[in-house]
Amino acid sequence: MQVHEAIAAALLEHDVDTVFGLMGDANMLYLTSYQKQGGRFVGAAHEGNSVGMADAYARLTGKTGVASVTHGPALTNTLTSLVEAVRSRSNVLLITGDTPPEPTYFQQVDIAAVAAAAGAGYEKVYRPKTLVRDLNRALQRVTSEQRAIVLDIPISMMQADVGDQAVAGRAVAPALGTPDQDALERAVGLALSANRPVVLAGRGAVDSGARDELVALAEKLGAPLATTLLGKDYFAGQPQNLGIYGNLSHSVASGAIGEADCVLVFGASLNAYTSHGGSLFAGKKVVHVDADPGRFGWYTPVTEPIAADARLTAAAMNALIDEAGHKPNTGWVSGLQKALAEYSPRDAFKDRSGVDTVDIRTAMIRLNELLPAKHNLVTDIGRFVLGAWPYLHVADPADFTTMGAFGSIGLGMGGAVGVAVAKPDQPTVAVFGDGGFMMNLADFTTAIREKLNILFVVLNDGAYGAEHYKLRDYGVDPDYSLTTWPELAPMAEAMGARAATIRKIEEFDAVPDLLAAGEGPCLIDVRLDPNLNILDEQ
Questions:
Q1: Which residues pair with 265 in a beta bridge?
Q2: At what angle do helices 111-118 and 79-87 cross, to 10 degrees?
Q3: What GO biological process terms are annotated to this protein in UniProt (predicted)?
Q4: Do 394 and 498 belong together in one domain?
Q5: pLDDT tens-digit profile of 241-285?
Q6: Is 170 within a domain?
Q7: Helix count (H) and strand count (E) of the chain?
Q8: Residue 204: which CATH number?
Q9: What are the angstrom distances between the C-alpha of 486 and each of 206, 438, 440, 520?
Q10: Domain containing 57: what range?
């Protein structure tokens, strides 16, 4: 068996049934072998998007997402998406291959240096006879480090004989951390002495499966529940659910956060958006539970850090509270439940739809009402998220991700494809600003070619939105941020998708029929006024 055949076989032994990528000299032989042996190859139009696809696939499946590109410029094209994967702590393996051993070869680049620049790990196959061992090691590092790893399999060895190889070994996840008893008792003491505690869950709590334990903890403490953005809708249906904690909070949640004197945080980084620059935790006791102790105190001071699994820690807290016979004071949370029951998102703002534009908030509320109850949601990044994230909901936070850890627009295109491949049994809703959508338009064709069930929602204000309001705040004419695109709906139709342009709220009523009209992706071009800046109303 030759190296390229052994790569394919080893990936399949590791249950890697899908690889994203773009074919070139260094990977074309093993990608061909992989498909011949039964693997699915999703070809991207741009190498960066292939890494974004693998990243989103990993986030929504919990498996390792694998991308494959050739050497040199193909690898450097992945850099932005690779940084995104690293900062999202996604389990991604990027396979590339060094150029022929000739220093003047024109596509030569230092692969290890590119990986290091992104913050990714690096592994190399040095000999054909250690191929499987080295692939095993790379996949194990992905799992144990929760970090993207770049694997270099030089092109020069692709047709070499591998000889007898070790069997591919399954990557083993790190053991779940149990809480230190002394820290646990101190944390429970802080919680029981608080007058207005809040229980806050992040994506780490979701991944841990801690929902029932956290709901029980909140009830034992007389506390409301809240989530970070990536824990979105985890407590939907609970009467004390505040929703998102941070700069996206609605008025009732903001009031409760301001009144709280203790926050028990499970599986969240407490980044600048959740903490609003630290201000939303100022003057509060903070218990921070996270499997990664490196997250403690990075964005806001922590009173009691606990390096442990979220679910195990919440369960242990519940046991201690039961042992203490604590009876919660429910007066504060009862008042919050009443206010939450009366809160209506539509009543929280004045609709500012124009003659041929819609208010993004009203638009997203209406779209949310029309979507199937069970769907995936992936978003790009940009000013539009302030009007999208609070109003678009999912049945399970594991169905949601946003390609925004590095702050680059455009990565949502790869994310949309990866999410749709990861969870094909339910539709994927992919939300973009116009600039982000156009940046990686080429891989819209990948969604079409793969007949993926994606609704692309382009929130189109004909501007680079964040720059529009920032220029205005600098006293500069914001029209410098405006741009002109082709008509997106006819363009999408010409590429093979179904599409519609929406300028009035009632035109959303046609979306269900658009979705049902055939297979493959749809696009709606939702027209917005660039001068409507919802930050002005907050």
A1: 200, 288
A2: 50
A3: isoleucine biosynthetic process; L-valine biosynthetic process
A4: yes
A5: 999 999 999 999 999 999 999 999 999 999 999 999 899 999 999
A6: no
A7: 22, 18
A8: 3.40.50.1220
A9: 41, 10, 15, 22
A10: 3-157
pLDDT tens-digit map of 45-77: 999 999 999 999 999 999 999 999 999 999 999
Residue 176 domain-assigned (yes or no): no
Give me the DSSP letters along 416-450.
HHHHHHH-TTS-EEEEEEHHHHHHTGGGHHHHHHT
| Threshold 0.90, pTM exceeds | yes
**What separation, in Å, do the N-terminal and C-terminal C-alpha atoms of the chain show?**
64
pLDDT digits (tens, 9 = 90+) for 182-199: 999 999 999 999 999 999
* Beta bridge partner(s), residue 431: 379, 457
What is the rounded CA–CA span in Å between residue 483 and residue 461? 9
Whether residue 229 sits in one domain with residue 362:
no
Tokens of 528: 């917005």
Question: Using CA atoms, how far apart are residues 154 and 50, in angstroms rounded to an integer?
Answer: 20
Phi-psi region of 361 (alpha: psi -120 to 50; beta: other; left: phi over 0): alpha
Query: What's the domain count of the chain?
Result: 3
Given a contact cutoff of 8 angstroms between Cβ atoms, the answer to whether 498 and 488 are in contact is no
Residue 307 shares a structural domain with residue 213: yes
Instruction: Look at residues 10, 11, 8 and name the one whose alpha carbon lies nearest to residue 30.
Output: 8
Query: Is 232 in the same domain as 139?
Result: no
Tokens of 231: 């824990």
**377-402 pLDDT tens trace:** 999 999 999 999 999 999 999 999 99
Per-residue model confidence (pLDDT) at position 190 = 97
Instruction: Report which secondary-structure segment, H or E, holds 264.
Output: strand 262-266
CA distance 174 to 162: 31
Neighbour-count burial for 145-162, b at 16+ CB within 10 Å, e otherwise: ebbbbbbbbbbbbbebeb
User: What does the alpha-carbon distance between residue 263 and residue 196 come to, in Å, rounded to a whole number?
Assistant: 9
d(CA 59, CA 496): 28
Cα distances from 13 to residues 132, 274, 409, in angstroms, run 10, 40, 36
CA distance 234 to 260: 20
**Nearest-5° angle of CA 365, CA 369, CA 370?**
120
